[in-house]
C-alpha cells in the first residue's frame, strides 16, 4: 500500500510540480519564502483532498461496492488522460502575483491542481486498499509529502532555469495514472 500511495502521489503531484517550476521561474525576490509557501500550499491541498474524497466515497460505498473497481479505473483513466492533455500546453498557466495577492493566487492554484487528488481519494479502497481511516491518513500524508518535496525542488529548479518550459511533468503523471487504472481493471 505504501509503494502504491507513493506512486499515486508522484502521479498526482505532476500538475503541482509543473506550476511550482513555473512559479519558481518567475520569482525574483524571496526565493526561499516563495518555495516554502508554494510547497506548503500544494502539499497541504494534495494531502487534504484525498481524505475529503475518501469521505465522500464512504457515504455512497454500499451502492457502488459491486462495481467500485470499474469506477476507480474510469476515474484514473479520466484523470490520466486529462493530465496528459493539460500537460501539452503550458502557455496558459497563471503568472505569479506579488504582495498580498500571492496567498490567494497560490491557494487557488493549489486547489485547482488538487481536484484530481479529491477524485482519487474516492478510489482509495480499490486502488490502495485503504479502508480504515488510519490507512487513508497514511496514504494522504504520503501524497501530500511527495507533493511538498516535488514542489519545493521544482520551485528552486524553475528559479535556476528561468527559461521557457518545453516538457510537462503532467505527461508522466497522466501516464502513471492510466497505468494504475489499467492494472486495477486487469487484476480486479
How would you describe this structure to a colleague?
There is one protein chain. Helices cover 80% and strands 0% of the residues. It has 188 residues and is mainly alpha-helical. It has one domain (2-187). Helix 1 packs parallel to helix 7 and helix 4 packs antiparallel against helix 8. The radius of gyration is 16 Å and the shape is globular.
Summarize the entry for a quick read.
The protein is mainly alpha-helical and 188 residues long. It has helices spanning 2-26, 31-59, 61-64, 68-86, 101-122, 124-127, 133-161, 169-187.
How many domain modules? 1
Strand fraction band?
A: under 5%
Low-confidence runs (pLDDT<50, min 5 residues)? 90-95
By DSSP (H or I, 4+ residues per run), the number of helices equals: 8
Helix percent reads over 70%
Supply Rg: 16 Å
The overall average pLDDT, rounded, is 78
Order of helices and strands: HHHHHHHH
The strand count comes to: 0
| First-to-last CA distance | 16 Å
Kindly name the structural category. mainly alpha
Overall shape: it is globular
Main sheet record: none
Amino acid at each position: 500500500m505504501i509503494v502504491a500511495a507513493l506512486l499515486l502521489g508522484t502521479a498526482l503531484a505532476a500538475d503541482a510540480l509543473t506550476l511550482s517550476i513555473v512559479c519558481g521561474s518567475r520569482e525574483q525576490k524571496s526565493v526561499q519564502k516563495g518555495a516554502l509557501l508554494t510547497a506548503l500550499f500544494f502539499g497541504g491541498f494534495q494531502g487534504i483532498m484525498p481524505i475529503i474524497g475518501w469521505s465522500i466515497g464512504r457515504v455512497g460505498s454500499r451502492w457502488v461496492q459491486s462495481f467500485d473497481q470499474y469506477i476507480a479505473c474510469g476515474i484514473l483513466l479520466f484523470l490520466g488522460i486529462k493530465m496528459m492533455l493539460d500537460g501539452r500546453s503550458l502557455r496558459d498557466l497563471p503568472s505569479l502575483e506579488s504582495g498580498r495577492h500571492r496567498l490567494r493566487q497560490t491557494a487557488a492554484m493549489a486547489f485547482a491542481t488538487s481536484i484530481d487528488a479529491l477524485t482519487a481519494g474516492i478510489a482509495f479502497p480499490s486502488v490502495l486498499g485503504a479502508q480504515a481511516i488510519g490507512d487513508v491518513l497514511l496514504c494522504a500524508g504520503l501524497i501530500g509529502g511527495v507533493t511538498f518535496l516535488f514542489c519545493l525542488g521544482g520551485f528552486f529548479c524553475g528559479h535556476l532555469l528561468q527559461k521557457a518550459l518545453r516538457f510537462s511533468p503532467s505527461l508522466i503523471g497522466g501516464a502513471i495514472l492510466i497505468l494504475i487504472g489499467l492494472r486495477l481493471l486487469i487484476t480486479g
